[in-house]
TrEMBL record:
Matching SUPFAM superfamilies: alpha/beta-Hydrolases
Alphabetized InterPro entries for the sequence: AB_hydrolase_fold
Keyword terms: Membrane, Transmembrane, Transmembrane helix
Source species of the chain: Streptomyces antibioticus
Transmembrane segments: 128-148, 193-210, 256-275, 290-310, 331-348, 363-383, 404-425, 445-467, 513-535, 555-578
Identification of the protein by name: Integral membrane protein
Amino acid sequence: MSTACHGVTGEVRAVERSRRGGAALELLVHGVGGATPEKMLNDPRTVRVTGDDTAAVYRRADDVDTDGRGGADGGRGDRPVPEAYVWSNLTSGNGTRALWLLLLPFMVVNLAHWMRPAGAGRTRVVRCYGLLVRLAGLSLTVLLVAAACEVALDLTAWQCAGTRACAERHSWLGFLSPEVSRGGWWSPPGRRLALAALVPGALTGLLWYLSHRTWRAYESQEPLDRTPEPESGPAHTALSRPGFWYGRRLVARLRAAHTAAALLTVAAAVGTAAAREDRRPGGPLALDVLGRALETALVCGALAVVWVVCRRGRSERRLDRRVDAHLVRRLPLAALVLLALTVVYAGWSRPGWRSEGRLPGDATFGAIALAQGAVVLVLAAVAHVLHRSGAGAAPGGRSALRGLGGPAVTMLACALGGVMSGGVSQRVSDWLDGTGTFLDGPPVVLTWQASVIPVLLVVLLALCALLGRRTVRLTRAERAAVAREYGADPGDPARTGRIARARAMATLTDRGPLVVGVTSAATLLLGAGALAGAFGTGRTPVRATEDAPAFVQGAAQTAQALGSWLIGLGFILFVTWGRRAYKDAGARRTIGILWDVGTFWPRAAHPFAPPCYAERAVPDLTWRMATWTRATGGRLVISGHSQGSVLAAAASWQLRPSDRGRVALLTYGSPIERLYGRWFPAHFGPAALAALHRDIDCWRNLYRRTDPIGGPVRLSGDDCGPEVDHEPLADPLAYGRTEEHPLPGPVLGHSDYQADPAFARERERLLARLHPEVPAPRTVPQDGDPP
């Protein structure tokens, strides 16, 4: 393979480098799951040279004082200085990370914002896409707070405390029951609702606290405010904009709007029942007028929240340090005051008022589900327009689901929120009403939604069976390929099977769009059917089929019972996982891996999503790279594994164009095209990756066929330089026992790329380009030369 990365251009750059001199740096960035600086630097003695306990740069103890002042070579002869950037504590630190599980639907809808297709010249359509995703995020906040209201206000304070048998069964509710407490102060329905409002109010406060605390801890780091320089070509990704990794203003605005929306939801749940009672004939006129005034104020507050969410999106072209202080403070405060007035209004004495049936939750949950379905359908239409307009501008793109990845993921976020809300409601209802005879239970809409879960599971099982069959067939085909590549015929059947199975299983990652698409489509259709059933009959599936044939009634009973059990089991598993993660560091690290993948992107659609670690990690890397090159006049190799390669690319985009030309990029096990390029085409599409290849000094990418995460970058040789991808690395290195490998080697998959000799060779070739005095030999690729 030719060592030239840019042909004649690379040769000219090498001469300029040899005249310029300067130190060389090798910056290592680990991937998901984290790594220790000792392992990354292969030295038990490491020292933190900059950073804190959350994220820091480490060096070997022998290299602490090596910063380029000792000579052109940095005081290390002809070797660059290695540094390790460790960022694992950004996602898997202390036990409070377990609380982030509450934020899972918010994280998923925030991902959908970044999955938009690359629409060329469609600014208004792009803004419409972002607006729709923000509205979907707002509906999730209202949905989960409404679920908390359903549990605390309807099931507990209204139904159970208002029923003598249920209140006696749960003695801690005795002081709320008018029959058990014999007219105690808290026994009127309005006061019971006012007291129960503390639960969703506390949930709102917790969400606000987590969002505010994580912003201050992780995302308040300012990016490098670089001096503007003309780009060498058109900007093909927003990741190169100065304000991309600093969304302080938008997050503050959205946090205020969502906090206000949550408080208004609680106020509506408390005040609606009291207002309905006051509108009955013979009710007090003053309370009726006050109730109508509060309802009008609630509507005005809801309109103000929607206006704030729709008013402004992200500002990325500059560092926007401003915060709309008047809005951030006054909007939640106004909602809190309105909630307090509603609580006082509901707690006013109303003789003869008794709690019967359910609170009006069917209309609430039905309206939320209908709004979410409509948003997803409109979002799909907008994404289709963007995909068609951008398809010609990005040849070779592999957008997931033909640009519909964002709407599909939005649908999954809404479904996840529905499962969480329905699960907690169903579980609490079963716990309060053990025999199923005391209470009316949760809203009919939630019961119908739970009943379609078994059907959805059947669809998913069929899809898994199809993928399993395909994997088995591919494994058989790979057995012949493994035997041919290793020259192992007949070889060891078990050894050949393990290698072939690892290769076949690694391809399941490429079937992700199919799984997401089928799941989202099935969820949308089944959800529409559940909504139609709930509003068409007004009864649960079992009661709606009372006059149907026996087998239909039996199927309805099975679906309703199994769905209720499954959704309750899912809620229990969710809580158990969170509790285990709070106490177990290993489980917390597993959750951290989930956040590594899901929280790379800034919070643009939902302020209560888990914090974006890249808003700390990317500025860290950018500052380190820029200050090194400017202080020493040197150049560097940034080496990233897995998710670390995505961070390395994002940091390279943030550099000035003149600094990018001094950077060489080594990626291995990288999902930058296989996952990010397919799911986030507007930011990691072919045009963006080709521009990065053109701007930096050199880029090499290593991958294995057995790796389920990493893959090729798919940048072919052109005027930007030869192909980025190395040929697939052998895994395992040897089929059987050899002189170099006397013991059987494992199938490494996504780990230990450094164990392959090709890694050391490619690394040395990149480092040779950084030699301050003697440039690496250059040859112009000739026709017929191997890549």
